[in-house]
Amino acid sequence: MEQSLTIIIPTLNAAGCLEATLAACAEARASVVVVDGGSRDGTPDLAQSLGATVVRSPPGRGLQLAAGAAAAPGEWLLFLHADTRPAPGWAAAARDFMRVPGNAGRAAYFTFALDDATPEARRLERLVAWRCRVLALPYGDQGLLLSRTLYDRIGGFRPLPLMEDVDLVRRLGRRRLVALPVAALTSAERWRREGWRRRSARNLACLSLWFLGVPPSLIRRLYA
Fold first, then answer.
1. Structural domain total, the chain
2. Are the C-beta atoms of residues 210 and 193 closer than 8 Å to each other?
3. What is the CATH number of the domain that holds 90?
4. Where are the beta strands (DSSP E) in the chain?
5. Is 196 contained in some domain?
6. What letter does residue 42 receive in the DSSP assignment?
7. Which of 201, 212, 220 lies closest to 127 in space, CA to CA?
8. 24 with 90: CB under 8 angstroms?
9. pLDDT digit of tens for each residue in the chain (224 aa)?
10. Is residue 175 part of a domain?
């Protein structure tokens, strides 16, 4: 029997990218829960018009993702950023993963890819692939697919203002992480706007501070 899937997308002023993401999600014919953190650009109305269920939440990805999981009807959960679009064929790869009984105790993520044709983008993609392979640290912009049973077992997303994805992945651990053979295309707008080296250095600094035990509320000031 096919198990049900719910896609959970946290949003905050995401009207410019959400339609493309929901179009990619439609491949799975799954329920979609958009958790809005107080958008002022019409994101909730857009999400509803495109068939998603909208849940309101205080801003902060940790809070929003936890609220989405609580409202999701699916036996499996796919957490996805609003500016991240799984590539064609992703739904079949996800279903294949979900059909394997032992995978109810594992989590899967997509290959990181950017919507930019520059060498800088390809270099960053290779670095992320190395981080996932060596450090077992996929980020939220690669999506995360796991059963509700596993999600509940590890305690779900914590109400963190930042690093909620790293926190959850660390609790999953290397042995429970699986890379799916499909890319998820993420917007490179932030890197283009702030500079490839500067944005990447800032992300690395945030990760380092988190591992050093700096409170996420303080790290968020650097990330913003």
1. 1
2. no
3. 3.90.550.10
4. 5-11, 31-36, 53-56, 76-79, 84-86, 107-114, 144-147, 177-186
5. no
6. S
7. 201
8. yes
9. 678 999 999 999 999 999 999 999 999 999 999 999 999 999 999 999 999 999 999 999 999 999 999 999 999 999 999 999 999 999 999 999 999 999 999 999 999 999 999 999 999 999 999 999 999 999 999 999 999 999 999 999 999 888 999 999 999 999 999 999 999 999 999 999 999 999 888 888 888 888 888 888 788 776 65
10. yes
Task: Assess if residue 200 is contained within a domain.
Answer: no
pTM of the model: 0.95
Instruction: Examine residue 208 and state whether it is found in any structural domain, yes or no.
Output: no
Q: Tell me which amino acid residue 104 is.
A: A
Distance CA 52, CA 46 (A): 9
Domain residue limits at 111: 5-189
Burial letters for 2-24: b for 16+ Cβ neighbours within 10 Å, e otherwise? eeebbbbbbbbbbbebbebbbeb
Asked whether the beta carbons of 64 and 165 are under 8 A apart, the reply is no
